[in-house]
Amino acid sequence: MPARPHPNLHTSKLRSEFLLSLAILGALAMVPLLVQSNYWLGVLIVSMYFAMMACGWNLLAGYAGQFSLAPAAFAMLGGYSTGLLAYHLDAPLWIGLPMSIIMPGLVGLVLGRIVLRLSGAYLALTTLSFAEIIRLVIYNSIDFTRGDQGLNVPALYDGRIGNYYIFLGVLTLIVGLIYWLLRLPLGRFLQAIRDDEIGAASRGIDVLRYKTIAFIISCAICGFAGGLYGTFARLVSPELGLIAQTGLVIAMVVIGGMGTLAGPLIGAMLVYTASEFLRDVGGIQMIVFAALVIIFARFFREGLWGLLRRVAVRRAASKGTP
User: Under 8 Å CB-to-CB from 71, ≥6 apart: which residues?
Assistant: First the structure.
């Protein structure tokens, strides 16, 4: 049997991150009581869509150390799994939405067994190639997917406030699921693989198996985010899989705090909301976010969550000093 890391490793830190995550989600639950603008409610709904993808990608990259460049592609796959069933078979959403989890998960299983034997830049380039291939296939399969015209998707709920709470509920479930997984031996094995893959293998951990499990879960989360987004936008298109969308997800995780539970939530809310303010200045959005990613990756490895925690620790220490 593989040697298990100490069960109390990172437990208190993980619990504090989970409590902060619940506080953020609780604050978001109050927003519709304060914000009456449908536009800004829509911005926050899309922010929660990105937060779902960021949580899924963070499980793989932040906790397992596997740098994939395909989260947006799997969101696109999830969206098309729902959209194609509705368009060609008139399938209801109670069938279409579960397929947005199952299909990306199955693709993740097959792809993971192939690409997760690679590491570093090779893994990133392979997943980037997959993402572009699948996007171009969808874009050019006009008879089946309608190409760049996209597919209409039935609405899960009419009205911004209803959709807002649906997205918030799903995001809360995703955060709870990841917290639960990280408290299991699976979570400790993933962190051992991230910290020292060779050392983890020498201790009896089946590295490929656990990396594949993390990849499948990450793909399924991103896929469901895409399927749910399609029911809100009532449309899925190849633009969901653009590499720029993946770039936003990575920026959110790095700025919020990679390898932390609350980081993707903080990053997604701040980055996407900020992108709305920068929309009028065009391409400067990606320049600003790229610069922030470089700064945070170099100087603040745990992102904004790490900064907040350091400030809290210092204030607590100063209060305890006579």
Answer: 53, 56, 57, 218, 222, 246, 249
Angle at 219 between CA 210 and CA 256, to 5 degrees: 90
Q: Angle at Cα 312 formed by Cα 311 and Cα 313, nearest 5°?
A: 90
3-state secondary structure of 236: strand
Q: Where are the domains of the chain?
A: 11-242
Model confidence, pTM: 0.91
What amino acid is encoded at 322 in this protein?
P
How is residue 276 written in tokens?
């709305």
Radius of gyration of the chain (CA): 20
Is residue 147 left, alpha or beta, with left meaning phi > 0 and alpha meaning psi from -120 to 50?
Answer: left
Bridge partners (DSSP) listed for residue 29 = none
- How does pLDDT run across 14-28, given as a tens digit for each residue? 888 899 999 999 999
Position 305 confidence tier, pLDDT thresholds 50, 70, 90: confident
Tell me the helix, strand and coil percentages in the chain, rounded to 5: 80, 0, 20
Q: How many whole angstroms from its chain centre is CA 188?
A: 20
Please report where in the chains the tokens 């709920």 appear, as a residue: 157
